[in-house]
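Record copied across here:
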Amino acid sequence: MEVGYWHLLENGRIQCDLCPRFCQLAEGQRGLCFVRARLNDGMILTTYGRSSGFCVDPIEKKPLNHFLPGTPVLSFGTAGCNLTCSFCQNWDISKSREMDKLANQAGPALIAEAAVQTGSRSVAYTYNDPVIFLEYAVDTALACRERGVKSVAVTAGYITPKAAERFFSVMDGANVDLKAFSDRFYRRLAGGRLEPVLEILEYLKRETNVWVELTTLLIPGENDSEQELEKMTTWVCERLGAEVPIHFTAFHPAWKMGSTPPTSPKILSRARQIAREAGLHHAYTGNVTDYLGESTYCHHCGALIIGRSRYQLSQWQLDPSGKCRRCGTVCAGIFEPQPGNWGSKRVQVTMG
């Protein structure tokens, strides 16, 4: 499929303008993402309509704790990525250069229909970063919107402002992976830069109605120092707002960092404490079993308002308008009068 977000350079190459990498391509070359390629005097998306698989997940697995809690979400991705994270947890998909990994073929209308048939309240563009298959994601989100199904992006936010305007215009929610608060980390371990991500986060909060939550995978010795966490959470509170939830998740040895030890629960709990001390209303821990760190508490009176254990809801103390039943304080998020009851199930879906 022919796609946009590029321009022709004086030297005859085409520059991709989708993300801050700005790959410059000669005829037949692909960008670092591997899925956007030059064909003659234009660009194509080689993965349009092709996926690495479809599953119905709990929305909390994205992770999104303040977006339709307890409901199922139809999740899918394609292949490739525009970052080069040495610690990638989905490396078999995001680092794939084999198109035969894209076993499922489904157009936007079929995905929207599958969401309706499975009872999914939303569709998640995930597993690899959806910004690289922007046109496929946008068309799918539009088809879903026509059927009353919401869309959520699970992304690192490494996208140019112009492309971001189109991409996020059709999204209802997003979990943005803020990998660290150090440009050195981004350059050394992710092959990118920090500043473009911060710019997109500010754009999302300032210019859109997208519900935003953040995730930081804490890697021992790399991005888990108290000083860095204090700087990060203070920036989030001051620039994005105290109501933005942040998830600190545990690293498990993967990809090129197989010898790095896993994150200790103590570090996760300390990160959560630092975030709360910085003024953030909601901070969570993930990739571990931690009822305290997985649950939602009223930031005003401290009451438990949504209890969780490994994606399973156990308590619901919000009134139909999204207020704490004890003190009446509004809990920020996108809530329905009653929570879903999907639980922790994960169900594979075969298209067609």
